[in-house]
Amino acid sequence: MSGLVDWHTHCFLEEHRTDEDRRLWSQRGVMAGGPMASPEQHAAAIAEAEPSQFVIVAIPKRDGIDTPAEFIAAQVARYPGRAVGFCSVDPEVDKDAPGLFEHALDLGLKGLKLSPTYQRMDPAGKACWPLYEIAVARKVPIMFHCGGAYTGSLEFADPWLLDKVALAFPDLRIIVAHFGQPYMEQTAVMMRKNENMYADLSARFHRPWQLYHGLMVAGEYGVTDRLLFGSDYPVRTTAQAMAEFRAINDWGAGIAMPRIPEATIEAILHERPLSLLGIAPDPA
User: Fold this and answer.
1) Nearest to 102 by CA among 81, 87, 123
2) Which of 24, 99, 144, 265 has its CA 20 to 30 A from that of 3?
3) What is the CA 4 to chain-centroid distance, rounded?
4) H/E element holding 128?
5) What percent of the chain is modeled with pLDDT above 90?
6) Maximum Cα–Cα distance for the chain, whole Å?
7) Backbone angles phi, psi at 139, to 5 degrees
C-alpha cells in the first residue's frame, strides 16, 4: 500500500469568503469539521489522520470568493514531500484566466479547480479551452465540481457536459469531485468510456445510501480503480471521513444487501497516490 491519501481538503481565511457564502455554509448542517478551515485548523485535521499525501484545493473562484494561489502555495510549503495545491480561476470573469493559471503553476501548484455549477459556465465553452491546453502542456489535472450545489446554476451541473472535454483532450486528467453527485451513474459511465476521467468521493460520507449506491455502480462498470478518497475538509476531517467510509456497510444493518468489499474500500484509501494522475509533492 502507498499510504493514506486525501485528494480533497480546503484551507482558507475568512477574508477569502463573502457574507453570503458564510450564510450558506451555516445552513448546510453537515460541517463536521466546523465552518472554518484556517491554517491552524487544517493542520490539526492533518495531524490527526496523518495522511501520507494530500491535496489543498481552492474553493471555486466566484462572486468575490477567492483563495489566492499564493495562499495555497504557502500552505503547501508547510508540508514538503506530502502536499500539493490546486488553484481556481473564473474562466468567464477573469480577463486573464490562462495567465492566472500559469502563474499558479509557476508558484508550484499542481492543478486547477473549476465548477460549472458554482461558476455558471459551460465546461465545453470557448473560455475554458485555453485552460485545458495549459493543463495538458504542463501535465496537471483539472478537478470539476459538477452536480448539486447551494448556489450557481444547475443548468451546467450534469457531468455529461465533461464528455466533450474528455474527448477533445484525451491527455487531460479530469477529476470529477464528489463523484458528480447526484449523477453518480453518469459519472461512472463516463469513467468507463474515458480512461482519462477519475472521481473523488469527498463530501459523500454523510449520505451513506448515495455513496453505497455509487460504489455499487462503479463496481459494476469496473471503474473503482479510478475512485479517489477525499474528505472535503471542513465538511469532514480526514479521520472522520475515513471512519465513515469504512462503516459504509453498516448503514443498512438488518437489510439483506450486498456488501462493498473491504478490499475495495482499503484500496481507495491507500492505493491512490498522487502519481496516479502524474503529479507529486515538491521534495522535502
Assistant:
1) 87
2) 144
3) 16
4) none
5) 85
6) 56
7) 60, 50
Pairing of strands 142-144, 83-88: unpaired
Does residue 30 register a pLDDT over 60?
no
Q: State how far the Cα of 115 lies from the Cα of 175, in Å rounded to an integer.
A: 11
Secondary structure (3-state) at 221: coil
CA distance 187 to 163: 10
Which three-class secondary structure state does DSSP give residue 176?
Answer: strand
- The C-alpha cell at 21 is 457564502
Please give the Cα distance from 277 to 107 (Å, whole number). Answer: 19
- Grid cell locating 113: 479547480
Contacts by residues 206-209 (CB-CB < 8 Å, ≥ 24 positions apart): 206/30, 206/32, 206/235, 206/236, 206/244, 207/181, 208/244, 208/248, 208/251, 209/251
Name the CATH topology of 5-275.
TIM Barrel (3.20.20)
Of the candidates 168, 170, 186, 241, which has an alpha carbon nearest to the alpha carbon of residue 208? 241
Between these two residues, 253 and 27, which has the higher pLDDT value? Answer: 253
Taking the C-alpha atoms of residue 221 and residue 118, their distance in angstroms, rounded to an integer, is: 29
pLDDT in tens, 132-190: 999 999 999 999 999 988 888 999 999 999 999 999 999 999 999 999 999 999 999 99
